[in-house]
Design goal:
This protein is an alpha/beta fold. The protein is 51% helix and 14% strand. The protein has 15 helices and twelve strands. An eight-stranded mixed beta sheet has the order 1-11-6-9-5-2-3-4, sandwiched between helices. A hairpin with a 2-residue loop joins strand 7 and strand 8. It is globular and about 55 Å long. Its EC number is 2.4.1.266. GO terms for molecular function: glycosyltransferase activity. It comes from Gimesia fumaroli. Keywords: Glycosyltransferase, Transferase.
């Protein structure tokens, strides 16, 4: 059970009473009459063969308030796409699968490339962007939730709590971020949030002062959570990063477009576990190493747009300050683990901090060398302005794939 303390500058909605899922879902059914809801599921084909997604689909089949489920399918050939249609066929809700590697959606992508509007990098950001475009093209949804497909501890109460703040017509929230404790198998997880993002925010505040953007990011209890929800109007202007900075980038975008009283976070689970990335010490283009670089670059880019001027010396100071603060956090987490009877590996925690410290500097130097780099995918408003019938092409591609292969 969480506490009721409000920290930071956004609203925190806690889990204070262990309210039943059925009671909340009954309300959501009523909300859906005036505010239809959709769910976006970005996934790799390999996740259809894993242990998490089968349970997720089983749980979602019990959800009555969803108007539509939009599934983004990456890295799938024709045979695998056909299998995906069968795999998701037990969903009673309206649902469509975006076969991102199929010839029809690839043709849409080439049309966007001709206008220099296509995503530059494949991955979750690209997948989510196309799914959100399809939802806009349908024009039948008021509220949208999104969550990952590798959640091993999933149950449908997560979705109910996640979508509730933007589905309730009496609430004024435009965007909601899910949060939870990353504890599983008797140990703390969530290394990138615990050991990179939080100490980096504190280091930046120490060096740059308490800037509004830093206070904003530091208000989120789990800024890297892949679970969030929003009202459909948010999609039009949002620019989605195509790299590992997706979650931080989305938080930055909604901060740019909305006042903080329209944003919130909600406790969606007592326990949460999903697929873990390797630290990848030897390869800066993989695992948590790449993730940490992309996240740090995203933060530095946003600060630069707010008028912060960086230099090599600044980034060296940030690295040193981050490193000291992160090591102090390890002691804090160790004590928290001990009092809760959890396992805690100080050596591996310090290895992660050492890698992240190097990557904070790498990200800073990369930013200085490439100040005009724009990893954001254009907003759908811009795409529609350049290609007015893009939504028609997108809908035809998705629906024709389904008709041909289902």
């Amino acid at each position: 059970m969480g506490d009721f303390y409000q920290n930071g500058i956004i609203t925190t909605l806690h889990n204070l009473s262990s309210r039943s899922t059925e009671e909340m879902e009954a309300e959501l059914v009523r909300f859906a009459e005036v505010r239809p809801m959709s769910l976006v599921l970005p996934c790799l084909y390999s996740e259809l063969e894993g242990p998490a997604l089968d349970k997720i689909v089983t749980e979602l089949a019990k959800v009555e308030y969803l108007h539509e489920i939009v599934i983004g399918l990456d890295r799938a050939d024709e045979t695998q796409y056909k299998h995906a249609i069968q795999f998701f066929s037990r969903l009673p809700q309206n649902h469509r699968i975006l076969w991102n590697d199929g010839p029809r959606l690839q043709a849409v992508n080439r049309m966007l490339q001709e206008q220099d509007l296509a995503p530059k990098e494949l991955g979750k950001g690209c997948n989510v962007w196309y799914c959100l475009g399809y939802i806009l093209a349908q024009g039948t949804t008021s509220s949208v939730a999104l969550h990952d497909c590798d959640i091993l501890t999933y149950d449908r109460s997560m979705l109910a709590r996640l979508v509730y703040p933007v589905a309730n017509p009496s609430f004024n929230y435009q965007f909601c971020k899910g949060y939870y404790a990353r504890v599983a198998d008797s140990k703390m997880n969530g290394r990138v949030t615990r050991l990179l993002v939080t100490p980096l925010m504190r280091a930046l505040k120490k060096i740059l002062g308490s800037l509004d953007y830093l206070e904003y990011l530091d208000s989120y209890r789990y800024p890297l959570a892949g679970e969030f929800s929003f009202r459909v109007d948010v999609i039009n202007d949002i620019r989605i990063p195509s790299d590992w900075g997706l979650e931080i980038g989305v938080l930055s975008e909604v901060n740019r477009n909305y006042s903080t009283n329209r944003l919130c976070q909600v406790d969606i689970a007592d326990k949460y576990d999903h697929k873990h990335q390797n630290l990848s010490v030897e390869d800066a283009q993989a695992g948590l190493s790449k993730m940490s670089i992309d996240i740090a670059k995203g933060v530095f880019r946003k600060l630069a747009t707010n008028g912060v001027v960086f230099s090599t010396e600044t980034f060296r100071s940030i690295k040193a300050t981050y490193y000291r603060i992160a090591l102090d956090f390890i002691e804090t987490y160790r004590n928290d683990a001990i009092i809760n009877g959890l396992k805690f590996d100080v050596h591996n925690e310090e290895k992660a901090v050492e890698l992240f410290a190097e990557n904070v500097l790498k990200a800073g130097l990369h930013f200085l060398e490439n100040p005009m780099e724009t990893p954001f995918i254009p907003s759908w408003n811009r795409v529609q302005s350049a290609i007015p019938d893009v939504f028609r092409h997108l809908c035809y591609a998705v629906d024709d794939d389904y008709r041909e292969f289902s």
